[in-house]
Design brief:
Bound molecules: zinc ion
Number of strands: 4
CATH architecture of the largest domain: Orthogonal Bundle
Strand content: under 5%
Order of helices and strands: HHHEEHEE
Radius of gyration: 41 Å
Oligomer: single chain
Helix content: over 70%
Shape: rod-shaped
CATH class of the largest domain: Mainly Alpha
Number of helices: 4
Length: 248
């Protein structure tokens, strides 16, 4: 009989370690989300800065293009104005005037666009400066918290490595058949796979167990599957009959 409860104690020790692993894994999985939450405002500002910088570059490029076009148009206008003194006919003269008017309109349009671009450039430069200030502030504020989260991740990983190694040692000490029963349940997400008897019932689903099965659990230190929910039911040491009681 003592052998039966020793087997049970060894398996319970493995389940206890597995519970610790489940807990640690849960904590580990929560850390990236917490990190993202803390870093969220920073990420948003970084994205805004990137978008503003791209727009700034685009505007600077457009401004240079329009300036170069305006430069060309001014050259053309100067040439037309010189030609005014050389034309001989009224027809040629009014054709030239019309060219001059068209070119002046073109220059005016380009100058308007250059001015718009310059205003946009100034706005963007100011916004980028503001974002940089806010980023510095937020990064400073979040630094400690992010460092703490990263340190926790390292710590949880270290503990998981330790606990998994400990589990391997403990699992090797368990009776193979029992271990496989347990492990099959655990992998099917029936966890905890081992639950104590509560009164006459399975403490996972509260289904009553047949009196004969209850006796076997209490007296034999044995595990018995609950017919209702499938977990393995055992008796807590205080519920177990002393070996002397057996057969009495
Ligand atoms: Zn049950």
């Amino acid at each position: 009989m003592g052998n039966g409860s020793e087997k049970l104690e060894r398996l319970l020790a493995v389940q206890e370690i597995d519970m610790e692993i489940v807990e640690l894994e849960k904590r580990r999985e929560e850390l990236p989300a917490r990190r993202a939450e803390v870093a969220g405002e920073i990420t948003a500002l970084e994205t805004e800065r990137e978008t503003a910088t791209e727009e700034l570059e685009r505007n600077r490029l457009e401004r240079r293009h329009r300036e170069s076009e305006a430069e060309t148009a001014r050259g053309k206008l100067a040439k037309y104005e010189r030609q005014l003194n050389e034309v001989k006919t009224n027809v040629a003269y009014s054709a030239l005037l019309s060219e001059i008017r068209g070119t002046k309109e073109e220059i005016s349009g380009l100058d308007d666009e250059i001015l718009d671009r310059m205003e946009r450039i100034e706005t963007l430069e100011r916004r980028i400066e503001e974002v940089d200030g806010a980023l510095e502030e937020k990064r400073e504020a979040a630094r400690d918290e992010l460092e703490a989260i990263d340190a926790q991740a390292v710590e949880v990983d270290r503990r998981l490595t330790d606990v998994r190694a400990r589990r391997e040692t403990k699992a090797a000490e368990v009776d193979r058949r029992l271990y496989e029963l347990y492990d099959r349940l655990r992998r099917k997400r029936r966890f905890p796979a081992l639950v104590p008897l509560k009164g006459q019932a399975c403490s996972a689903c509260f289904a009553r167990m047949p009196p004969q099965v209850v006796q076997e659990i209490k007296h034999g230190g044995a595990l018995h599957p609950c017919e209702h929910c499938g977990v393995l039911v055992y008796a807590e040491p205080s519920e177990r009959a002393q070996p002397a009681d057996v057969g009495s």
